[in-house]
Specification:
alpha+beta; Nucleoside Triphosphate Pyrophosphohydrolase; five-stranded mixed beta sheet; three-stranded antiparallel beta sheet; 5 helices; 10 strands
Length: 218
């Protein structure tokens, strides 16, 4: 946990908002910074979203389940401009906006958003407009209003639902699958020997941001 906490702090210390409105260490980086929100209900369910099915274009995560989240965007942070250092508050602001868009929750339904220090940052990769994209994900824990009605107004999301994470693991993209395995208290050996772990490590190498990531889960 201590190692992963230091890694998350190092990422935030080294990342800045860029001219494209996203964040990384420099404009030439192949990756951009993002975050996901991991919330647990009193009955052990978590709030998940199912990606919309995209036809006529290549998108590996079409129809997959995931934790809510997205790319860090300057437009979600007050007065953020190119060159500004990324703060935890900036990631929390993006997550709050993504939660509202993807799940229908209101800002007042979100009572806590904090870094998930016990979960590692991971790299995901996907195809968009014919180009390979990479995102370095910072995980957050959240307390949400479980009695609020959920439903997505975002066209990239088919539906939002409180559901049992174990039932969704096989239907999730690699990085989200790893967070789901951690959520379900699977062993470190099972996680680090999984295909999902190998894919995320391979993407980290391709994106040249492996220095930010732990060699294993502690």
């Amino acid at each position: 946990m201590a190692e992963q906490s230091k890694i998350a702090s190092a990422i935030l210390r080294d990342c800045f908002f860029l001219n494209d409105g996203f964040a990384a260490t420099k404009a030439g980086d192949k990756w951009r910074l993002g975050a996901v929100c991991i919330a647990r209900s009193e009955n052990g369910l978590s709030l998940l979203v199912q990606k919309a099915v995209k036809t006529g274009e290549q998108y590996e995560f079409s129809g997959k389940w995931s934790f809510p989240g997205g790319m860090l965007r300057a437009e979600h942070s007050e007065e953020a401009k190119p060159g500004d250092e990324v703060r935890i508050a900036d990631l929390a602001a993006t997550l709050s906006n993504r939660l509202t868009a993807e799940t229908g929750l209101k800002h007042e339904d979100i009572s806590r958003l904090e870094l998930a220090h016990s979960y590692p940052p991971l790299v995901t990769s996907y195809t968009a407009k014919g180009s390979r994209r990479y995102t370095l994900i910072i995980p957050f824990f959240a307390d949400l209003n479980q009695s609020a009605t959920v439903g997505s107004a975002d066209r990239s999301i088919f539906k939002a639902q409180w559901r049992k994470v174990d039932d969704a693991i096989e239907q999730m993209a690699p990085a989200n699958s790893i967070y789901a395995m951690l959520f379900s208290n699977q062993s470190v050996a099972a996680i680090t020997s999984s295909e999902a772990w190998r894919e995320c490590r391979s993407w980290a190498n391709e994106a040249q941001c492996q220095a930010f990531l732990p060699g294993s889960i502690t």
